[in-house]
Amino acid sequence: MIKDRRVKAAVSKIARNAHKELSEEAIKYSFNNDGLIERLYNVNHQIVFGRRGTGKTHLFKFFSAYINNNPENEYALYIDLLSISGSSHSMNESRHSNYTKYVHIYKDLLSEIHKTLCEIAFSGRYLKPSNCEEEIELRKELDCLADAILQIDTIISNVRVEERSNKSHSSSTSRDKAAEIGIHFTGVTFEGGLAKGHSISSRNESDYYRVYEIDNHENLVYRTVNYSLDRILSILDVKLFVMIDEWSSIDVNLQPYCAELMRRTLFTNNRIIVKLAAIEFRTKLCVITSQNRIGLEMGSDIYIVLDFDNIFLFDENPDKVIEHMSKLLYNHLKVALKDDFIGIFKLNESEATHQHEKLMRSLFDDDIARLYFIKCAEGNPRDLINILDKCFEHLKDSESTITLENVLTSAKYWYSSAKESNLSKESDLSTDLMPRFKYLVNRVIELESTRSFILKERLFDTTLQMLHEKRIIHILKKRHTYFSDLGEPYLVFIIDFAYCAYLMGQQRINLDIFDKDEYEKLMRFAEPLEYHSYTMYDLKRNIRNVVIDSWPDIHVS
Questions:
Q1: Cα 326 vs. chain centroid, distance in angstroms?
Q2: Distance separating alpha carbons of residues 277 and 71, to the nearest angstrom
Q3: Which of 370, 380, 250, 260 has the alpha carbon at shortest distance from 313?
Q4: Calpha distance 143→137 (Å, rounded)
Q5: Which residues in 350-451 belong to E strands, given as ranges?
Q6: 272, 347, 336: which is closest to 302 by C-alpha?
Q7: 40: alpha, beta or left, given left = phi > 0 and alpha = psi -120 to 50?
Q8: What is the pLDDT of residue 117?
Q9: Which of 192, 204, 354, 372 lies at a C-alpha separation of 20 to 30 Å from 299?
Q10: Torsion sign over Cα 341, 344, 348, 351
Q11: Three-state SS for 517?
């Protein structure tokens, strides 16, 4: 069955990114719920963390479809910030002030909400046709909201730029924290908006700085937007879920100011529930200035509901990850193969339970091969599918199933072609990334024969964050207390197992040395459900041997 060309074609056809999947049916049937929807389906403003490929977009698209097919008076609007915040204007051009950038993003968000409200207002589902008075008021408020959004454009278009010398203005009355993004608010707070005569200065390291002055009678007032949104949703009697994906695509220094504008409008409306999807270490929702707070406060305004980097990390929840990834693969192949799925793998749909386990036994040679296949993906669905694609690519003519050797070879090629190549492309940090990573490999793997290490939290700098984002290292535990330094918070990391497969291919480490106890124990069992009974050898035995409390004298930022 694994030799069937339809299976290989189906694996290749699986969308690696949910942004590319246009079919609502494919989004629906390939999703593995596992209790995720129930945790999102509430009135709380929430944020979902996860690195690229962990399934945030798939979750948000599935949730949106789930809500919109629900008979309740609810509607979900999915917004991809990558598609709106850079399309109508060049967000990265230096000629734009930081003020115009984040206000543009806010304007684009409101425009998407207004467009959606217009669509659902006259869909016939929410407004009764016989109620003419409400329809007249609804049209009026939709127009008012559109006018308020247009006023934002007017404010931005009337920004005057004046360059002043730093030498003649050595002192500054700007707010200290706002200086971090090169924007200074002079004589104005968010409560009042930006009115005629107010100015914003943008400072750089050269001998001059720019002052942006808004010369317009129109204020950026929240009252108009708030009132119109409230009346529209009240007339329709609908609750609106705003699902904002790719939040981390916004410049991290602008995020608190975008969040503040949202807090003043969307977060004050009881009929609007906001859900964000973001990468944790590329997210900054709040800054504290000398006078007030700007943005969203975690735990008060918005709550962390899911952290995909943690809940689906293999070494943290092996039994859960094995089941989740097996079901996910089952769903994707079923959608891709359609009517051929049951016949190819000889499955019985009437036996709903454990069908994913039967599929995995059909694909892989033994339990060890299945275990290491899932382990190499480190809880990342996109990596899982790409490694499976490589397994079919490296399948030998004599093999009728995927062997352990095939899995490790495929993981090695996936690491070298995707993850390692991405490291070299980070031009700004490439001089820092490689020396730092080579130091970790030498200290952790080659000297201690383990993947795990403990790092002081304050040493988790931009370079380490990049390694984490590229899925080269993974955080196993946060806020860890080390027994010999109780006052200092630590992070527990593991080095990516696919990289270890890469080292095995180079014959720098051996499988039986690296995971000796685990491998020997697993060889005695045939049932896949026994996987979770054993803690990883390297984590259990050597975790205290590698404690990093300072970096050696290497070229780092």
A1: 22
A2: 26
A3: 380
A4: 10
A5: none
A6: 272
A7: alpha
A8: 95
A9: 192
A10: negative
A11: helix
Q: Are 135 and 181 in contact (CB under 8 A)?
A: no
Question: Hey, what amino acid is at 87?
Answer: S
pLDDT top residue among 501 and 409: 409
Give the Cα separation of 413 and 394 in Å (integer). Answer: 10
Q: For 16-60, where are the E strands, in sequence order?
A: 46-49
Q: Which of 385, 370, 387 is nearest to 525 (CA)?
A: 370
Round to whole Å and give the CA distance between 58 and 36. 11
Are residues 241 and 273 in contact, defined by beta-carbon separation less than 8 angstroms? Answer: yes
Residue type, 277: A
Residue identified by tokens 């690519």 is 393
Distance CA 326, CA 13 (A): 18
Cα separations (Å) of 186 from 102, 172, 202, 257, 333? Answer: 18, 10, 11, 15, 58
pLDDT, position 435: 84
Number of helices and strands in the chain (H, E): 24, 15
**Residue labelled with tokens 């685990």:** 518
Q: What share of the chain is helix, strand, coil (3-state, %, to 5)?
A: 50, 15, 35
**% of residues, the chain, pLDDT over 70:** 73
Chain centroid to CA 398 = 41
Asked whether the beta carbons of 466 and 426 are under 8 A apart, the reply is yes
The CB density around residue 435, as the number of other CB atoms within 10 Å, is 16
Average pLDDT over residues 131-139: 86
